[in-house]
Amino acid sequence: MKSGIVYLIGAGPGNPDLLTVRARQLIESAEVLVYDYLVHPAFTYLLRPDCERICVGKRAGFHSKSQAEIQEILLAKAGEGKRVARLKGGDPFLFGRGGEEAAALAAAGIAFEVVPGITAAMGAAAYSGTPLTARNTNATLIFVTGHEDPEKPDTTVDWESLPKRNATLCIYMGVGNLDRIATRLLDGGFDKDTAVSCVEWATMGHQRVCRGKLGTISKEARAFGLKAPAIIIVGETAAMGENLSWFEKKPLQGRRFVVTRSQGQASELSSKLEKLGAEVIGLPLISISRNIDPQTMKDVFAEIASYDWLVFSSPNGVRYFFEAFFETFEDIRSLGFLRIAAVGKSTAREIRKFYVTTDLIPDEANADSLADALIKTDSMDSAKILVVAGNLGRDTLIDRLEEARAIVDRFEVYKTEATDLSEHPASKMFREQGADGILFTSSSGVRSFVDQAKFLQLEKDALRPKTLSIGKITSAAMKELGLPVDLQAKEASLDSLVEGVVNRFGKVSSEL
């Protein structure tokens, strides 16, 4: 049997933006992904469509696969000649049992590579404003596991002997044993006034920080409702977070939103929300793929220079149109002297990536507004127009342009299909945790959400979300299908929708 290779990859502390460049490259090229429970579902959007996904669980109170079974999976998939990405939270060689997996691979003669990740303690420190070292006070840094029971006679952690001064302790997996850990440290001579920061879900939008003193932190953590996963930081610098915290000051920090998006595509809306501190669950309700009839493409491009207007109804249309265009032509000037219209600013930004200027953008991003804007140019009579669309594109635009005596050709370049959410990591995360809000940006997204509602039933303790709309057309679809409209953007644009989210859910004292 030919042998593949296994990449032991550190996914970082949780926030998908903290993934290393090397890790991203390997995930994008993987044929098999083996991942842990705490790995953010956003990583799955980087995968090839044909990549096999295997979730092996590994969280407190739940293990879908034993460590031995995980190692067997790695050996089996590599034995099939596959490129296997083993994605682990934090760093694979720090409390991640990556060493055991590497040893198993080495013993079997299977090639492997270790890709380090930002470990949880470093992420927790940075995102809570807690320096792990300080030149004049904290010159020693200790990472220690709190998962073991400190009262066991065979524990490998000598809590009483840990440095009590000029040091910072970072305790992993210690929430369940916090009472006993604090007692052991105090019994070993630690000052009861030693500062402590407990960072829950570090680097994520719903990160929380419980700050206190070693002598009272157990009581404070219970009142706070501290839960795993959390990093416990003990030492003088732990008190600095009160002044140096920056992440907690973002207007949407502590909030979680669902963005309905297409499978495998980055989301501009997600990026805007994340920059404001929110955690975003990208729910891939639909998948979008190229769908161009070869003969139609040949006919359209044979006459491309004869069109007066090239009209794009979505960013997806822009991407697939130009992909096909450059398969036929080598020079953008082959477009001729036509004018270009875009349904909205997001579509215009996509057009700009191809170094082409958009001549017309309506005030509102919908088909009716685009038709109004085109008709107002007084150039429709006998004009030859090419409308680039997908398989679900509404006929409103074409009908209205033809009523204005334009000659309209429709060029379908992509298709939209429902995604199977039954076992998708993002839908699983939504079912377990819920969200503050679900943001709908299209009627098709609303319909897909309702169609797949059986896969999105929230668990008992999950947060019940509000439903938010980008504009009147999307709101009409929501009302028609029985969804409440808790918020509608003042204008049909992403910026207006985000502004509405901040006004509704943001921290009053924060600035955009």
What can you tell me about this protein's structure?
- It is built from 17 helices and 19 strands.
- Helix 16 (472-480) links the parallel strand 18 and strand 19.
- The protein starts with a strand and ends in a 7-residue tail after the last helix.
- The protein is an alpha/beta fold.
- It has helices spanning 21-29, 67-79, 98-107, 120-127, 178-187, 217-224, 241-244, 268-275, 294-302, 315-328, 345-352, 367-376, 396-403, 425-433, 443-451, 472-480, 494-505; strands at 5-10, 32-35, 52-55, 83-88, 111-115, 140-145, 167-172, 195-200, 208-213, 230-234, 256-263, 279-290, 309-312, 339-342, 384-390, 407-418, 437-440, 466-469, 487-488.
The low-confidence runs, each spanning 5 or more residues with pLDDT under 50, are: none
- CATH top level assignment of the largest domain: Alpha Beta
- Determine the fraction of residues in helical runs and give it as a percent range: 25-40%
Main sheet specs: 9 strands, mixed
Strand order of the largest sheet: 14-13-15-16-12-11-17-18-19
By CATH, the topology of the largest domain is Rossmann fold
Q: What structural keywords apply?
A:
512 residues, alpha/beta, Cobalt-precorrin-4 Transmethylase, domain 1, Methyltransferase, Cobalt-precorrin-4 Transmethylase, Domain 2, Rossmann fold, nine-stranded mixed β-sheet, 19 strands, 31% helix, 22% strand
Helix and strand layout, with pairings?
Blueprint: E1 5-10, H1 21-29, E2 32-35, E3 52-55, H2 67-79, E4 83-88, H3 98-107, E5 111-115, H4 120-127, E6 140-145, E7 167-172, H5 178-187, E8 195-200, E9 208-213, H6 217-224, E10 230-234, H7 241-244, E11 256-263, H8 268-275, E12 279-290, H9 294-302, E13 309-312, H10 315-328, E14 339-342, H11 345-352, H12 367-376, E15 384-390, H13 396-403, E16 407-418, H14 425-433, E17 437-440, H15 443-451, E18 466-469, H16 472-480, E19 487-488, H17 494-505
Parallel strand pairs: 1-4, 1-5, 2-3, 2-4, 6-7, 11-12, 11-17, 13-14, 13-15, 15-16, 17-18, 18-19
Antiparallel strand pairs: 7-10, 8-9, 8-10, 12-16
Helix pairs in contact: 2-3, 10-11, 12-13
